[in-house]
């Protein structure tokens, strides 16, 4: 398994992974499937903003992707970033998520970011445990802020301080 910069040719695979998360999980509080055009616009915006998108590749198959970007768009938050990691269902629980989060941590730290934020559905215990094992601490638990699959969802924020003061 390798991690490399995403390219436009990867977008159909990224789209499939993301749409699976929309349809079957609470990893993203989105209910409308994305189109390839939407993913192309997202990718172009990431590139224009200078934020990375990486893919995890096994053989020639894209099995996951990750990215990070601004936590909030106000200047005072410019050293705080929030990340996303998505895996193909067939490749979850195999350590690929850990490798992708570690990749994000290292890159975000090298770029001079101070804090890395993870917004995780409160019932997604494996992801919460993964982040905690990498040094993230829970800093917020928002009750019933999301709604999907006919029920209210809680959201947890975890953070990792990348650069100690």
Automatic annotation (TrEMBL):
Keywords: Acyltransferase, Transferase. GO terms for molecular function: acyltransferase activity, transferring groups other than amino-acyl groups. It catalyses: L-methionine sulfone + acetyl-CoA = N-acetyl-L-methionine sulfone + CoA + H(+); L-methionine sulfoximine + acetyl-CoA = N-acetyl-L-methionine sulfoximine + CoA + H(+). Residues 1-159 form the N-acetyltransferase domain. It comes from the Bacteria. InterPro entries: Acyl_CoA_acyltransferase, GNAT_dom. Pfam families: Acetyltransf_1 (PF00583). Transmembrane segments: none annotated. This is N-acetyltransferase. The lineage of its organism: Bacteria, Pseudomonadati, Bacteroidota, Sphingobacteriia, Sphingobacteriales.
């Amino acid at each position: 398994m390798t991690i490399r910069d995403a390219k436009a040719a990867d977008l159909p695979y990224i789209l499939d992974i993301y749409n699976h998360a929309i349809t079957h999980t609470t990893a993203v509080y989105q209910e409308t499937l994305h189109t390839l055009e939407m993913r192309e616009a997202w990718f172009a915006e990431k590139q224009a903003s200078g934020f990375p998108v990486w893919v995890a590749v096994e053989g020639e198959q894209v099995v996951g992707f990750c990215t990070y970007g601004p936590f909030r768009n106000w200047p005072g938050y410019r050293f705080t970033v929030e990340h996303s990691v998505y895996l193909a269902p067939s490749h979850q629980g195999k350590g690929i998520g850990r490798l992708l989060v570690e990749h994000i941590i290292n890159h975000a730290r090298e770029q001079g970011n101070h804090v890395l934020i993870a917004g995780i559905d409160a019932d997604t215990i494996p992801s919460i445990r993964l982040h905690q094992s990498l040094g993230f601490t829970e800093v917020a638990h928002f009750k019933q802020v999301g709604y999907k699959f006919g029920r209210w969802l809680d959201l947890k924020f975890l953070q990792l301080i990348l650069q100690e003061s």
